[in-house]
Design a protein that fits this description.
Blueprint: H1 17-28, E1 35-39, E2 42-43, E3 64-67, E4 89-98, E5 103-112, E6 125-127, E7 134-136, H2 202-266, H3 271-288
Length: 289
């Protein structure tokens, strides 16, 4: 960098020196191969990482950057951004210990500044009634503190509301009734005589609704019973058909076994067949003796 000029940047400790050169090459608008980075007066190789150079997480290290071709590609000072002049990393001194006992120490904490890439959203606010000064709610990056669970399930949250006020309104159309009187005759040719119907009490209405509910329940339960009976009938038919198939299969297997044994007795071919005949003959002789 030019003499007396210094900038502070935050990087991941896993980046290599070549990654740093590429980053500063895009900012300074110079080729990355003409940038030279030194640490304590010694040149740093391109494949070395920040972690390999001894940089710890949230730690700081000071590099010196120069140009190998200062005549054609000089390194110019970086112009700070107009909207934010704060560096990427700042060091904050925090006081620890008990102040009233005069037993405390100081600790330096490295804080990384995260720049917002978009405009902060408008979160509302309020204005002073006398001075008309507007105060906007601030947007922060810190996660909001969650309120403790009260154990009650709620479907709404407390919010600021305005008081509702009553206000009388006048209809746009006025309605009136004209009656016959002295000096004014109103024809009743188009009048309608409305006769009131039968008055239904609350008990009669509820009893009617109860009868309708009972009727719906009756037909619904009948339909459910028919569905259950049809399913039971189908299960019974399937069970009977399966039992018949099993009985027929066992009968056929037994008949096939008898035929096979008869064939082995009449036409012995294997050693087991002759052993079967010998055992049958021996058992027959024992029975006669």
């Amino acid at each position: 960098m030019p003499e007396g000029h210094m900038i502070t940047k935050a990087f991941i400790i896993g980046l290599t020196t070549q990654d740093l050169k590429n980053h500063f090459a895009s900012e300074l608008r110079v080729p990355s191969d003409v940038i030279k980075i030194t640490l304590n007066g010694k040149a740093v190789e391109d494949h070395q990482t920040l972690m390999g150079l001894g940089v710890q997480p949230h730690g700081t290290v000071q590099f010196e950057m120069s140009s190998l071709d200062p005549e054609n590609y000089p390194i110019k000072p970086v112009k700070p951004q107009q909207e934010c002049n704060m560096p990427d990393v700042i060091t904050v001194r925090v006081q620890k210990g008990q102040i009233w006992l005069q037993f405390y120490t100081f600790q330096d904490v490295v804080v990384e500044i995260e720049r917002a890439t978009r405009k902060k959203a408008f979160l509302g606010g309020y204005s002073h009634k006398l001075t008309k000064t507007e105060y906007h709610h601030a947007a922060v990056q810190t996660m909001a503190r969650r309120r403790p669970d009260r154990g009650v399930e709620t479907f709404s949250r407390d919010s600021q509301t305005v008081e509702v006020k009553s206000q009388a309104q006048q209809c746009t159309i006025n309605t009136c009734t004209q009656m016959t009187k002295i000096g004014c005759y109103m024809s009743n040719m188009k009048d309608k005589l409305i006769i009131p119907g039968t008055y239904i009490t609350a008990d009669e209405y509820h009893s009617k609704r109860l009868k309708a509910v009972l009727t719906i329940q009756t037909y619904t339960r009948r339909w459910q019973a028919k569905q259950i009976a049809a399913q039971l009938r189908l299960d019974k038919e399937l069970r009977v058909a399966w039992a018949e198939r099993e009985e027929r299969r066992k009968r056929e297997e037994k008949e096939e076994q008898i035929r096979a044994e008869y064939h082995r007795r009449m036409n012995p071919e294997k050693k087991e067949d002759f052993a079967l005949l010998y055992n049958a003959l021996e058992s027959n002789c024992n029975m006669h003796l």
